[in-house]
Design goal:
- With 101 residues, the protein is α+β, with helices and mostly antiparallel strands.
- It has two domains: 70 residues, no CATH class; 29 residues.
- It is 34% helix and 22% strand.
- It has two helices and five strands.
- The chain has a three-stranded antiparallel sheet with strand order 1-2-3.
- The longest helix has 24 residues.
- It starts with 11 loop residues before the first strand and ends with a helix.
Length: 101
Amino acid sequence: MTRGVIAQNGDTRISQNGYHYTRTPQGWALTHKLVAEEHLGRKLRHSERVRFKNRDRMDLRWENLSIIEKKQTVSNEKKRAQLRAKIEDLQAQLEELEEHE
């Protein structure tokens, strides 16, 4: 892809981090994701990720790709507790500001 040239659907580029992108009608998309969706015959679910089996981001063959479930890093209960703590902290800051007015 040459600088200054408008990308057409199907054009590809490689980012500095080594991921391969393809231009689609919706914009740029990760090529390995497009390959997986084409092979599966459906869009990936929100909970799914595509991984490279051999860690080579240039190897876009289906045989090198695997679909995995995203890990939920924070449980809903923990997230609620974190949000409540933030609310309490913000409320305390607001009260302190109001005391000094």
